[in-house]
Request: fold
Amino acid sequence: MPEKKFNFAKSYQELQGIVGWFEKEDIDLEEGIKKFEEGIKLVKGMKEYLGAMENKIKELKNKL
Reply:
């Protein structure tokens, strides 16, 4: 089964939506915990993606 391609821009938009939700005045604690967990997963994926891209750039620079 092919690996699903990571969409950094989409993840960033989703994270911004979660941040916006937390900026509301009246938030539900249980919903907040779920949103926080979603945000943590998004940040983890984004961090892994950026790390992979950094490694790829280093590899390309070493080939020069």
